[in-house]
Amino acid sequence: MNNPLLQKFNTPFETPPFNEIKNEHFLPAIKEAIQEGKADIQKITSSPEAPSFENTIEALEKSGEKAGLISGIFFNLNSAETSDEIQKLAREISPLLSEYSNDIMLDKALFQRIKAVHDEKDKLTLSPEEKTLLEKTYKSFVRNGANLPEDKKEKLRKIDMDLSQLGLEFGEHVLKETNDFFLEITEEKDLSGLPDHVIEAAATTAGEMGKEGSWVFTLQFPSYIPFMTYADNRELREKMFRAYGSKAYKGDENDNQDVILKKVRLRHERAELLGYKSHADFVLEERMAESPAKVMDFLDNLLKHAKPVAQKEVKELEEYAAKTGGPEKLQKWDMGYYSEKLKKEKFAIDDEMLKPYFKLENVIDGVFQVAGKLYGLKFKPLQDVQVYHPEVKVFEVLDEHEQHVAVFYADFFPRPGKRNGAWMTSFRGQNKTGDKEVRPLVAIVCNFTKPTASKPSLLTFNEVTTLFHEFGHALHGILANGKYESLSGTNVYWDFVELPSQVLENWVYQKESLDLFARHYETGEAIPVELIQKIKESANFMEAYQTVRQVGLAKLDMGWHIAKAAGVKDVGAYERELQKETELLPPVEGTNTSTSFSHIFQGGYASGYYSYKWAEVLDADAFEFFLEKGIFHKDTADLFKKHILSAGGSEHPMELYKRFRGKEPSPEALLRRTGMLK
Fold this sequence. Notes:
This protein is α+β, with helices and mostly antiparallel strands. It has helices at about 25-45, 55-60, 65-80, 85-105, 110-120, 130-145, 150-180, 195-210, 220-230, 235-245, 255-275, 280-285, 290-325, 335-345, 350-355, 360-375, 460-480, 500-505, 510-515, 530-535, 545-560, 570-580, 600, 610-630, 635-645, 655-660, 670-675; strands spanning about 180-185, 215-220, 380, 395-400, 405-410, 425-430, 430-435, 435-440, 440-445. The chain has a 5-stranded mixed β-sheet with strand order 3-4-5-9-6. The chain has a two-stranded antiparallel ribbon with strand order 1-2. Strands 7-8 form a two-stranded antiparallel ribbon. α9 crosses α14 (about 335-345). The radius of gyration is 25 Å and the shape is globular.
């Protein structure tokens, strides 16, 4: 078979030739790439030369490039444009890659060579980046069982295979549950409170499903969130909330409870096998936070400041709801609805007022301009690059000297083959070999409000911040300037990876930045100064409530990955126990967060969900530095680019941060920004 995945990509910038790639190409290509990768390893282990940094550590870094490239393309499709066929392939491909990875990690001869180089590290003349690569390589082998006896290595292999299958199963169940539910409204009165564009989008969805004359709402965010925010019909809000909250928690073929219990037990067993107390201890050894105790102290400190304020916020909201004819006691399906109403009353601002100023195309242009002013980047649309779906847009990124920097893909709207949420990813990372530099292919994938027959895609303020957030991650990939792909771009400690994304969100609140792109989609008038002022004033509205919610999710994640969790039998009961101290409203029977908590059971955030809050401390501290000099101050931007965005994981993140900021980050900056510290 002439397999395009196995040829050199004869395309602009060697981008993936999506039009030529068929599903049947993936399995044979992966199998062949794995064989090539194994041959690379064989070459290292059979070398008659004494182990050196170049012939062992660097050679290993360069091994299996094809397998990395092909699997990257495949798993990106499985997230953004999946199908039954791709999901079936994923179940075949995952164990093959898991086995391949274990074959390398548990290769005795290879580890002996790595250890020999590591033992001599003090005598070698290595750059900081080379030292990091050596340390990371050695540690990753030890952390993946290289020092274990043979019988335990076999056990580890089996656990890793099972874990990769369970992760796929978890994601398939959540996607199926998200796609299977819809709320069909046939009576116009049940649309009361919903903005026109939301009603129009629901009619479009109904039409696509062959339900002309009615309105359909789904569990996809651009449909679910507006419904929960604006629908006057409380019973229907409850129905939607229960459907969302009970995803994969119904005791049927899509139930994830058993998947979670198996996954948690296996993660714990794996950690114990490697000599750690728990999965959390294992993970946090390689994080800025270092230990579960430090994470819990960090979360408790935030909770101490946030919870009393959050309780006041909920009380104020209940009083407001009762005063305006609502319920005496709020339920979870009331929060979005009454928050939006109170926010409008307090600050005379709501999403409907702001959306006309945030046409998607203008916001994209805005984020490009911000990147231009900060880092000298330009974005040029590319028509001749193949895409995996017609909606995907592609740009060439150029620097101030018109030199090629990267290719940037953007995929904005929900569809049945795409998982919920928003993320940044890459089809190829950046690296250097000798004089040759490979520049990255970076993508962001979102689920924003679609254009309708009468209106373009108008973003909520939350969607604008999401776009800036994901674009911040993209800049981390685009501006990568390392030697080794495994230390380049977003390949950093997990609790550091959110700094570039979260810091960029701050520009959405600044007049100087909004003036670049926030224009009314019909009249072209710039966003009024008083609206910008209101955005800033309302920025901390319900902030403590949101903080407690995030802390609750982080504690739920930690709770699933401490030793005690391995003995849990009842997912619902255990979750309730973990959520008690952060629960501000009555728990809802029949709903569960864990069963669709994809970040920790399908993505890479297990024992790492706290990192969103951790990175907020970094981003608040970093942005204070920008504010001191001006948000487009060239020298500050240059420091951030050099020590954070371009440096990737070349050194310990705290060292890089101190080089940028001149000091360690202070948590006070976040408490100041959120108004929780006077």
